[in-house]
Amino acid sequence: MERKLIIAFITGFLTCFIPVIGQTSSSTTDKFSLLTMPYNQRPLNLYKGQFQANAGYEFAVRSRSFNNNGDIIVLKDKGNSSVLHYYFIELKYGLTNFIEIGAETNYMRRGIRSESVTYLSSNAIGSTDAISVNNLKEYRGMSDILIFTSFRLPFEYKLFDFGIRGGIFLPSAQSEPAKPTHTVTDVTAPNSFTLNYHFNNKNGFGTAVYYISAASKLTLSKFTVEADFTLREPIKEGTNIRWEETLIDKLFSYYNKPYQYLLDRTLMVDLSVHYQAAGWFNIYLNSSYLKTYGGWTEYWGNKYRNPEMHLFTLEPGFEIQISPSLTIYQNAGIPLTGKNADAPFYLFTTLSYNIFPFVRD
Amino acid sequence: MRRIIPIFLLLIFSSVVFSQTEKLLNPADLKQQTIITEPLSLRKGFIRVGFTYAYSVLDKYYDEFGNKKYSPESTWGTTTGTTFWGQYGVTDRLMVEIGLPYATNLINYHSKIYAPGIDSMILLNSSVRGKGIGDLIVSGTFQIIPSEENQFSLKASVDITIPTAEKNPTNISGWRDYDAPAGYGAFVITPRITARMVSYPFSYIAYVAYNYNFKGSKIMSPGDPVEKQFKYGDFFLGGASFNFHLNEWIALANELNYSFTGKGEVENTPSSDLTTSWAVSYETRLIFQIKRFRLGEAVSIPLKGMNVGADPTYVLLAQYVF
Question: Could you tell me the domains of chain A?
Fold first, then answer.
């Protein structure tokens, strides 16, 4: 009897213990496995103790735009296309498997030309005066720093994940434009010359901006669908300055006037379909919808509502795991429809560096 | 015990160092070598075909004082060049190649003229279109110090540009409205010396090249009634790169180079249209080696310069070895 009891006890113990062991052994916790986890198997957040640094560069060619009727304007035919250089950096750290903190910022440079205009007039001595006007608005500088915290569902990622993120853009960057650097060139007669207007704008918001987003991810074998929703909302109205100029004897002098504004509310929705072609290679197609509305700008003491803008862009891209620590992402942006929006074609390349700085194994 | 510890440490250290050695190759792998591990020219009997596609815009430039400036007028330009390449290894140290470029350049000019006195407004739209097959390039490369079994190797190359393409502007409607030629209009000989040091997974490359431009004749600007004799300023290019494997099949190259173009002549007289210029540029290349197929992306960014464009150039490269 005692022997049967011992056998029954051992059998019962093994019956219970083996499945428990089987459950736990499926979760991989070594650094190498976590760092090389394919997109379709990893959660929305970083793992506990994981540090990620992302550095990206976007080269955008603004050769088209959409007007207020949604019609395409071919800017290159008007001679005022431009390019955008956008450098991006993001740092993230996984506090737990379900909570992540991070910060990001960017540096942007672009120069937008307006149509050159020449004004002709006859003068007293019978010849013609010609004043040509070129206009360039340059935007250059750091943007505000976004700090954020992300939460995701508190269980291991298998098929479905959901997360939310909240943050704030701190008004760390310059928002007031620097003094313009207008010049007068090609002086051929007292009243025949070229005026080159050059405005030097910055990229800061000028006021703190809230940021909230939600993301969900569903994986079915090698296919994954991810949906993201983001809202940006200014905390309050801001004050900025506009530079005015006077021209006397071909020399410019400048003064500025303050004005008030309220930034637009920005809404972004992304929906992407991913295919994990190999453990190291993920290819995807993202569709992105951007809408801004609700802001206003003061002109001559009156508040004028900013035009509502929306843009729908298709973004094919890929992700390649180069080494356990290094991943490269690249995507192209092809704007399809929009209203009151620039429609740049762009290439965005990001290098992602991942480590577990405080984990030994 | 004291003797065993240093021996043990030495063994651990040496095993780690030796474990970093380059993978041994069988003959089939020779066509799959990366930009780090391949010899400086193709092996005997190997054929490589491919193309490079380069895209840039005309948005900013370095003026004569070295200041970076935006083009002030409402103009917009893009330059797109695709060169198709074929290479053949005559011997393990001698390679010949042929290149055929195709250009698609476009500059749009748009402006408006108001004449209030006569109640008139004129819109001016014009474009300079440069589209077509460019000049043929033939090239020969010889490994002076062969790459085989040498960490340090040296090669000498000579490129000859043969002016086979159209050299004069056509369809001229105005001084800013015509089809620009895709051809250079003169023979060019470009000797080039390249040195490389391989220390797997790294390689270090330094090179110098010089363009000797022969005299030619062509219509220099669209308004000219006849061709003028010209000679472009000589061109010098020198650079060095640090390259390394990110993994077994992806390599990253980082290059810093300097170029200088001397003053050119028109009708044996120095011309203000062919000015002296120089540039210092940084170029980064990411090269994927997928079996015999090679795919690469590069961005060349002008850092400083004088009388040159200041916009980055994006390059896409694809090659296949038979």
Answer: 39-355 (2.40.128.130)
